[in-house]
Automatic annotation (TrEMBL), chains A, B:
Keywords: Amino-acid biosynthesis, Methionine biosynthesis, NADP, Oxidoreductase, Sodium, Threonine biosynthesis. Catalyzes the conversion of L-aspartate-beta-semialdehyde (L-Asa) to L-homoserine (L-Hse), the third step in the biosynthesis of threonine and methionine from aspartate. It comes from Streptosporangium vulgare. Pathway: Amino-acid biosynthesis; L-threonine biosynthesis; L-threonine from L-aspartate: step 3/5; Amino-acid biosynthesis; L-methionine biosynthesis via de novo pathway; L-homoserine from L-aspartate: step 3/3. This is Homoserine dehydrogenase. Belongs to the homoserine dehydrogenase family. It catalyses: L-homoserine + NAD(+) = L-aspartate 4-semialdehyde + NADH + H(+); L-homoserine + NADP(+) = L-aspartate 4-semialdehyde + NADPH + H(+). It comes from the Bacteria.
Length: 430, 430
């Protein structure tokens, strides 16, 4: 008896899912214990030319009828976005069908509803493809590390921005030139907002934090800054100090372990950190757990075939569960930890100031840091006269204290401009 | 109702398992849906001082009685070695109890028997900790990549040898000095044979190859060479050419996909390869799959706490299965591919020759390569007169052809010595 799969969406990822289900049919059947049958493909328009070789008889525009069809065992959603994806997934789960999805936006915005429907429908909800494409990450976090205590997740989870920052780092290009190149190569979309403003990474960060800390997290909990204001000078100056700038998604417990923060922003990391070597559009996620220590997962974070690989892995798992009458692990939010506000985040900072070149400047600047209890690790003056710059790196301090310091600095007459403020991460890592 | 766990062995890993089960009891119970209870610990001698705080009433020297006790749900084996581990695991599985083990030697030598017992007993057999300690690798390979087609697995799976080679690379130390340091730091054992001769890595390679290619592989199928003959000169010369020497476990399909090879040997890899940056005693495994592309998994490959983290992750998975009356994925050997002999392995080679410094030498050397159809990519002469050396790097050629070439070279009067022959791997990777 074949297990029947309904596919929602037949774009870049969907057409690869169709191809792989076809090409690897024998292997998939052997691994599952029963063949898979593609029983229907919901698309927006029937006439469109597709990459995939889909039997036209399988195509339908009535996705709602497809997901509730009695003979369907597994629903695979690769439409993306909130609606109609959410309604379709809920309809499938409500009728007891297991769902495999790659939909990070939905899970980050309204995961609670979807997970509750899975529980109520006694159905599986698998979503490996929602974060970091082909990189096995959801399964390791929710299964392999189920006996451990995760302290921190530090990830490069957006390939577009990593490509742009890597180009800026290796060629000295400006942000807009690097973005243009990424667009020309298909790494960035015509409207790059979701990537360069960090929305995509923030959705992934919310999903990762929820799993890592067994709590409920939504995209709204994520502090988000994009990379549009990173200049070639920032990149060059980081490089000169042995750092590289990456857009990081960071989920970290507070020192007392009772709350955690979730944030997406550009940060300087040492070139010796394993994440520093992640080039081009690759993704990588660094996990620090109490017993496991430091782990890193690296690979292609996007693209049709890599994402389809993750979807297929989930289909195999769900299909085995269907055959065994079993269910995979469900959402785990028992710890119910609080997401603390960004002001409570503790990290280090790199601050560049345009200053007047006269005696006493450093003392007044240092005093402003001291007033907020922000301790300075290194300070260095670059240039002279009209070009004088002070570059400071702090010890660990709260975001609130650093913000108050910066505000105070802006009011000093000897500070002509706060040129850049950048967080420094990954210093403890070997 | 608590799930009862029997622990076999209470050494470096076992005592960490006890500690974590105790310290994380509440989290484990919440994640599983029921508490775990340590119901018995089998040890060799009762009086011994232990790191773990185990209730003496739980200790027993009668492991056999413990594993078949009616109230035991899960048996955790961290004794290691073939016997008595095998008999105990088989007794547990035969009585329908699921098993979590870290035993690479047993799985590599006689996995077939153990897996068959799991099937017959309708019980789970989980072994994430058997390969690369805390790094989630078994689960990603057998579950996340279940919908993909793995071409190649390339791993640093032995921390001791990686520490030694990394020391040789960074400080120019000799093999014996680096080994001495590794022993002083506790990274290498007093008798380092299992590590430095590649036996440990070979067992892990056999397990990885079996899972990656859905075929049965034993340690005897693995071509194995250790690192004891690597000299400081080899390391320096690799470094000068932009390479680093690593002990690699390589599982690779043949070009036609019908067979595969499994081997453990030192190899030169480019310093730009993600595996090149794996320092000290860390492990990392690079996987190339058809759709997922290049993936890498990095972390601590050994040690009590990291290995216990992997064991605990498996205990949670097995416990959930016990509660649900379900079973995890079982051994998958349906593909039944053949392991090809080492002679059929195709790769590139770096060859150093001590030669007489006279006209015509290069022509005669090149001719010997040509006779065996081994094509030369680069050749370089170093030194003059008595110190003249030829350094050649070949294109891809079979191990058999290269061996025949080397044999031929040894017989040439103008070749005073074949100084080193080293495989070159990882050149295609970005």
């Amino acid at each position: 008896m074949a297990l029947k799969v309904a596919l929602l969406g037949c774009g870049v990822v969907g057409s690869q899912v169709v191809r792989l289900m076809h090409e690897q049919a024998d292997d998939l059947a052997a691994r599952i214990g029963a063949p898979l049958e593609l029983a229907g493909v919901a698309v927006r328009r029937l006439g469109r030319r597709r990459d995939a070789d889909v039997d036209p008889a399988l195509l339908t525009t009535d996705a709602e009828a497809l997901v509730t069809r009695d003979d369907i065992d597994i629903v695979v959603e690769v439409i993306g976005g909130i609606e109609p994806a959410r309604s379709l997934i809920l309809a499938a789960l409500n009728s007891g069908k297991s769902v495999v999805t790659a939909n990070k936006a939905l899970l980050a915005e309204d995961g609670a509803t979807v997970h509750a429907a899975a529980r109520a429908g006694n159905a599986d909800l698998y979503f490996e493809a929602a974060v970091a494409g082909a990189i096995p990450l959801i399964r390791p976090l929710r299964e392999s590390l189920a006996g451990d205590h995760v302290h921190r997740v530090l990830g490069i989870v957006n390939g577009t921005t990593n490509y742009i920052l890597d180009q800026m780092d290796s060629s000295g290009a400006s942000f807009s030139d690097a973005l243009g190149e990424a667009q020309a190569l298909g790494y960035a979309e015509a409207d790059p907002t979701a990537d360069v403003e960090g929305f995509d990474a923030a959705a992934k960060a919310a999903i990762l934090a929820g799993i890592a800390f067994h709590s409920r997290v939504t995209a709204a909990d994520v502090h988000r800054e994009g990379i549009t204001e990173i200049t070639a000078t920032d990149v060059a100056s980081a490089k000169a100090m042995g750092y590289v700038i990456k857009l990081l998604a960071i989920c970290a417990r507070s020192d007392d372990g009772r709350s955690f923060g979730v944030r997406v922003h550009p940060a300087m990391i040492p070139r010796t950190h394993p994440l520093a070597g992640v080039r081009e559009a690759y993704n990588a996620v660094f996990v620090e757990a109490q017993s496991a220590g430091q782990l890193m997962f690296y690979g292609a974070g996007a693209g049709g075939a890599p994402t389809a690989s993750a979807v297929l892995g989930d289909i195999v798992a769900v299909a085995r569960n269907v055959l065994a009458g079993a269910r995979g692990p469900e959402e785990s939010t028992y710890a119910d930890l609080v997401v603390h506000p960004m002001g409570e985040t503790v990290t280090r900072y790199h601050v560049s100031l345009d200053v007047a070149d006269k005696p006493g400047v450093l003392a007044r600047v240092a005093d402003m840091f001291a007033k907020q209890d922000v301790s300075i690790q290194t300070v260095r003056q670059e240039g002279h006269g009209a070009d004088a710059q002070l570059v400071l790196v702090t010890h660990r301090a709260s975001d609130a204290a650093l913000s108050a310091t910066i505000e105070g600095l802006r009011e000093l007459d000897i500070v002509r401009d706060v040129v850049s403020v950048m967080r420094v991460e990954g210093e403890d890592a070997s």
